[in-house]
Specification:
Structural class: mainly alpha
Helix content: over 70%
Number of helices: 10
Number of strands: 2
Strand order of the largest sheet: 1-2
Order of helices and strands: HHHHHHHHHEEH
Shape: flat
Radius of gyration: 28 Å
Strand content: under 5%
């Protein structure tokens, strides 16, 4: 399938960097070919489902004719969109993990530098740790580039910069290369970087706690106070008129209980997740 996709490769060039930053060990052409193939399968399956529904459902003739095409388009577009967005989503997730782990890793490296360990040996020690941290995996790739591909530390770190989704990690690697290349005091650089990262982490933790407090207040207002006020208001008005705007009081109570409260809960959860994610990034 790849030869047929080459005329369209220019439309997916931005995915090359995303795949590397997402940590997906797959070539660009293979991923695009798989994306198109899966979308084609989705079109066929969607068309088959739409045909079956059109055959069994007793609806308008025009709707039954358009149903297979609509299901095909929906299935193909959905699968294509998921494949297209997946590298970017994974890259953002890895960036958050790297930023969260970086301060501890730099602190560990500062201790190793204080013990007189060479820069190459530092990454070997981090790579030997039994951990699923993203930085630990990056250290293993750096060691792989040095041991298997024969690159020196500088070129291995430059390759890590290109595939890293975290700007902070890239800045740290650039400073590390400069300090080790020019013969600077690597221990001092690592200690200052670790101190700066920990300070930034504390400030972000404070911002997250403030955001959580705002979300808690929003939860109290939207899901506790407002439903109670609405139910009290409906009960008082019901005694006077029996209905509001043509709706019975019982119907309005059902709407508040089974529609307003669940939708409000989902909205608060979305706001909380978005706010905390942005504060942590």
């Amino acid at each position: 399938m790849e030869p047929y996709l080459r005329p369209f490769e220019r439309y997916f060039e931005d995915m090359t960097s995303d795949l590397s930053k997402a940590g997906l060990r797959i070539t660009y052409r293979a991923y695009v070919a798989g994306m198109v193939f899966a979308s084609a399968i989705g079109v066929l399956v969607g068309g088959a489902v739409g045909t079956l529904l059109a055959f069994y459902l007793d609806t308008n003739l025009l709707i039954r004719i358009l149903m297979p095409f609509g299901f095909s388009l929906l299935a193909g577009t959905t699968i294509f969109s998921v494949f297209y967005a997946l590298p970017q989503v994974r890259a953002r997730s890895r960036r958050g993990k790297v930023d969260s782990e970086l301060s501890y890793t730099v602190g560990h490296m500062a201790v190793l530098a204080a013990a007189g360990m060479t820069p190459e040996k530092m990454f070997h020690e981090i790579a030997l740790e039994e951990s699923k941290d993203v930085i630990n995996q990056e250290a293993k790739l750096i060691v792989r580039d040095m041991t298997l591909l024969g690159n020196d530390l500088q070129h291995a770190l430059q390759a890590a910069e290109k595939r890293s989704p975290s700007e902070r990690f890239v800045e740290f690697l650039e400073g590390f290369i400069g300090a080790s290349k020019t013969g600077g005091d690597l221990k001092t650089y690592l200690l200052r970087t670790a101190s700066s990262l920990m300070l930034d982490k504390r400030l972000k933790a404070r911002g997250v706690s403030e955001s959580v407090g705002l979300v808690a207040e929003l939860y109290t207002i939207v899901l506790v106070v407002m439903p109670l006020l609405l139910l009290i208001m409906f009960s008082v008005v019901g005694i006077i008129s029996g209905n509001i705007g043509g709706f019975s009081i019982l119907t309005l109570i059902y709407i508040v209980t089974y529609a307003v409260v669940p939708i409000g809960g989902i909205a608060v959860l979305v706001i909380a997740d978005t706010t905390i994610t942005q504060e942590s990034a």
